[in-house]
Amino acid sequence: MIEPYAYDPDDSSHASLGRYNTTENEADIQVFRVPSLRNVAETPPYFHDGSVSTLEEVVTLMARHQLGREIPASDIDLIVAFLQSLSGSPHPTLMP
Ligand code: HEM
For residues 37 and 49, what is the distance between their CA atoms, to the nearest angstrom? Predict the structure, then answer.
């Protein structure tokens, strides 16, 4: 079963309310932009609040919160290896 992401509704930053902060539409509570995974191994910490520092933990939480599954450590290692393969040189025309 998909497990909702735990958040503190009294957090003064309200960051975990997601898109709701902009729209004030209750359907947008905890709606977040799905980030690009390009170079993701180089860009910790992860999630909207920077609360997760390793890809292993991110993948564990994604499986739990987005797929409702607990996945074996061996699968997590393979997914992390895939995510690490997404690292490359910055696109020259996109550099500031
Ligand atoms: C095993 C499958 C998945 C993997 C390996 C995965 C991987 C990741 C990673 C590495 C991040 C962190 C990116 C960052 O912070 O820079 C992330 C964030 C996110 N993913 Fe996934 N993901 C998976 C499944 C899903 C699914 C099924 C959905 C939606 C239906 C989803 C939606 C999101 C969203 C909305 C975020 C941003 C969350 C936030 O900012 O708090 N993911 N994912």
Answer: 17
- Confidence (pTM): 0.88
pLDDT digits over 32-43, tens only? 999 999 999 999
| Residue ranges lining ligand 1, Cβ < 6 Å | 32, 34-35, 37, 40, 43, 46-48, 58-59, 62-63, 66-67, 79, 83
Task: Provide the token pair at 27.
Answer: 């359907």
**Ordered structural domains, the chain, with CATH:** 15-88 (1.10.760.10)
- Coil/strand/helix, residue 31: strand
pLDDT digits (tens, 9 = 90+) for 62-76: 999 999 999 999 999
47: region left, alpha or beta (phi > 0 left; psi from -120 to 50 alpha): left
